[in-house]
């Protein structure tokens, strides 16, 4: 793993970690009123496209972090649809 891949891994890790508090808060409060379903869906599609791109360019950092972010954003979409 080269130094630029490490930068990508750290950047992706921080971006991914930013979703953890929102997932936790939503789970604990059982409230999704402040979450926009449209934003979550558009974001999820974007993350899936980044994941596909990461696979195409064979970037471990992009594949790993976007896989985790996709799961976290999917959980928020699930909560948004389920906790109405």
TrEMBL record:
InterPro entries linked: PQ-loop_rpt, SemiSWEET
Subcellular location: Membrane
Molecular function as annotated in GO: sugar transmembrane transporter activity
Record protein name field: Glutathione synthetase
Record keywords, A-Z: Membrane, Transmembrane, Transmembrane helix
Membrane topology: Multi-pass membrane protein
Organism: Aureibaculum marinum
Domain of life: Bacteria
Residue ranges crossing the lipid bilayer per the database entry: 6-24, 36-53, 59-79
GO CC term (a single one): membrane
């Amino acid at each position: 793993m080269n130094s630029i891949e490490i930068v990508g891994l750290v950047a992706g890790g921080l971006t991914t970690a930013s979703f953890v508090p929102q997932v936790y808060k939503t789970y604990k409060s059982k409230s999704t009123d402040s979450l926009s379903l449209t934003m979550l869906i558009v974001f999820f599609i974007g993350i899936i496209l980044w994941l596909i791109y990461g696979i195409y360019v064979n970037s471990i950092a992009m594949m790993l972090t976007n896989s985790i972010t996709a799961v976290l954003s999917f959980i928020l979409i699930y909560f948004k649809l389920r906790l109405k």
